[in-house]
Amino acid sequence: MTKYSWIAEQRRIYTENAGVIRDFRSQMRTFRPFFGWIAYLGIVFLVTGISYYAISSTSNLQAAQLQDRLGQLFIVLVWLLGILVSMTTPALTISSIIAEFERGSIDLVMSAPVHPKYLLVGKLLSAYRYAWLLLILALPFAATGVVMGGFTYMQVLQIFFCMSLQALIAGAVGLAVSTLTRKTVNALMQTYAILFLGSLVLSAFGLTTILSGAMSGTREAPFFGLLVPGMCLFALDTFTRIGSWEVPNWILATVFTLGVVRLLLLGAASGLQFTLNKEIIGLRIGGLIAAFLVMILLSSGGSAAFAGLGPGMSVVTGQQLAASFVVITGLGLLAIMNYLSCWQFVGDRKYLSNGFFDPRLMLRGTPAGNVPYMLALFMAALGGYVTGGILGRMNLDGSFWLHMTWAPAFWLFFLGLGWWSSVLNKVNAQAARRLQGAFLVIMLAVSSVALSFVQANTMGMEIISVYHPLAGAVTSEANVAIIHTSLYAATGAVLLLTAEMKRREIIRSSYGSPLP
Amino acid sequence: MIIEKETGRSTVLEVQNLSKTYGGLNAVSNVSFTLQPGDIFGFIGSNGAGKTTTIKMISTLLEPTAGTAVLDGFDIMNDPMEVRRRIGYMPDFFGLYDDVRVWEYLDFFATIYRVPASERQGVISNVLELTDLTFKRDAMVASLSRGMQQRLCLARCLVHDPTLLLLDEPASGLDPRARAELKELLAELGRMGKIILVSSHILPELADFCTKVGIIERGELLAFGPVNEIARGMEATKVLEIRLTDRAGDASMFLHGKPGVNHTFLMGASTVKIDFSGTEHDQVELLRTLVTSGFPVMDFREQGADLEDVFLRVTKGALN
């Protein structure tokens, strides 16, 4: 493709997208959207009105106190807008893709000479435009923050921009999920669960770091604070230190958002196609690059928060760095391992069992390439983390290498569970994913509850946390760490080996075909 | 085979050993056929025989387990985008966006098929005229009758002037008038030089206008070719029907024992049917003899094979 045809193609996708035009025509045709906007503005008016009433009914306020209260009113508004916009955007993307499947029009579009990206970008841009429409509608309310709360219009614009980034990510998550499930209710539940858990974790880590930074007089904070609904107000002027550079977080947040959206769109595009496709290769290469870069950012800037050291603390020991590494890789793998580790005996070729371990298929997206890809992803993450650690002059001593091995061992064990789930569910990969997912949820729930009952700094906590998919490797005892890591690795290997033997037996007895 | 002057590519559809396997189930096995411009190909089979799977593989929506199909020299596996530019696919459901107007629906597809913006309105007008929907141009898609929706779906397939039309059960659920209109429309498209592959399990709807048929059962293409040729291939004999203004009984006696004539049957006062196994030359001689002998022959023709009979006989072995 020449440079000019590439430009023409990008223009066709982003500025002349038929899907965006079609959605705009149907969205604006009737009075239905107006009722939606009135309801939306009604909620905003109700919440801000109640807050304003509470302030105005308080007597004997000094001028400074009054402005502080009015500032809080603006905070409530930002929080509310963030939630409403982030909730609305994925609902639009999910319903649009699933409606394509329900009415059968997806086949018509996919038999046309367009890549899935064209369709997906159209859906996402429609939803993103709608998010901006909602934000602009709320501008008169936001102006109260400028008139009465001491904020500037530039800050309002920055906040709106951050909220639009949140909406973009939420919409892209909705698109990715909607290509993997065919029922609206399921897709809505999965999408909101992902967004809710993601926001919860990131806001917990981000808020502690931002507040602790504010207390200690620095505005250094993780950039993802800008991407959590309601939190962006506190993180507007923060920065991330990469080596000796202080990079404004809004730049990192924008780059991060575009990267994440690109990966999610590639995931959605590969999920949308029935055949093995080049989007899978793009997705996998992109995943490796993203793992490397994100880990550099997080390890150089936000490890203290992930290590759970609390406000104002910095990472000092190799074991604390390892704990931070385990949490970050755990969060990433939590999102994708369910898809990487399950396969099926019949159906579309990309999910079809085609072997146990084949590094040549690492980027192709077939089951035989999944274990090699998981290892490559892990190595990329480790490389990024170590690079970030070196840039941040952190202490990557022997205890880091000892404790961080918990992560690959645990996820090998989880991979083994996925293979057994696939062997047990001969119907399709989705059923296998549900079984494996249920096991993970049980592990998360039981170990989280158990952890809440034991006191910190006890052996009980160390042992229970080993079974927590996000909180392993906290033990301070080297021997205990070695034992748990070895147990997970050995169990994972046994699960994989036995599942592979069972897979071969099933193929031989049921299909009589040569083993792939 | 027609060769395009500019590209040197052949304008035919060649399906080569197309197969699709789901686990141990062979949905389609080694299906092969070739179609040329103007061919209207009736793809016949019971429900679940493999028609839709075959059509989906040709339309690049499903990946073949083995084999391939080549359209205008472009392979469905290697050049799916080029193949998609040349096909118009109509599934067995309409897949219409019901919240837009008729012209907006066509405009959407004209855009994704890269019809230049300056030509779009003209193209939309043309396909609406061809499908007799001009008067519904500004109507909402949801307000159209089923027959009209089906014609709109066909209009959508035509916005980019495809070489090949893949129509999966296009007439299901239509009333007799809508079916007749559809047949007329497909015949017209065939005359325009398009290759049309139309699948159905309702045989009478295909018998009238298909130039070729393929009979598929349990994933295997059991027969392919013109209906009469398939019927002839199944039997050594054919039926000739002769209508006379008078003396049908004498003609029946006269024809008895002539070369190729096995049996004669007197059908009423003016018609004779012959069970004939002779060559084409024998058939010509038979007519000449009748006329020169003074019989008042009004009509002399080979009776067309009944598609339903052909289908039942071809699939008898496969279904048992």
Give the tags.
heterodimer, A: 516 residues, 2 domains, B: 320 residues, alpha/beta, Rossmann fold, 6-stranded mixed β-sheet, 27% strand, disordered N terminus
Please tell me about this protein's structure.
The complex is a heterodimer of chains A (516) and B (320). Chain A has 516 residues and is mainly α. Chain A is built from 19 helices and 2 strands. A two-stranded antiparallel ribbon of chain A has the order 1-2. Chain A is globular, with a radius of gyration of 24 Å. With 320 residues, chain B is α/β, with parallel strands linked by helices. Chain B has 2 domains: 13-226, P-loop containing nucleotide triphosphate hydrolases (Rossmann fold); 232-307, Alpha-Beta Plaits. The A-B interface holds A 16, 18-19, 21-22, 25-26, 29, 103-114, 118, 274-276, 345-349, 510-512 and B 22-25, 56, 59-63, 65, 81-82, 84-85, 87, 89, 91, 93-100, 104, 107-109, 111-114, 156.
C-alpha Rg of chain A, in Å? 24 Å
Strand order of the largest sheet of chain A: 1-2
Which two chains touch over the largest interface? A-B, 32 and 35 residues
Helix content of chain B: 25-40%
Poorly predicted segments of chain A: none
CATH architecture of the largest domain in chain B, by name, is: 3-Layer(aba) Sandwich
How many helix segments of chain B? 11
Helix content of chain A: over 70%
Spans of chain B of at least 5 consecutive residues whose pLDDT stays below 50 are 1-7
Give the N-to-C terminal Cα separation of chain A: 36 Å
What oligomerization state is this entry in?
Answer: heterodimer
Give a short account of the largest sheet of chain A.
2 strands, antiparallel
Estimate nothing, just give the exact number of structural domains of chain B: 2
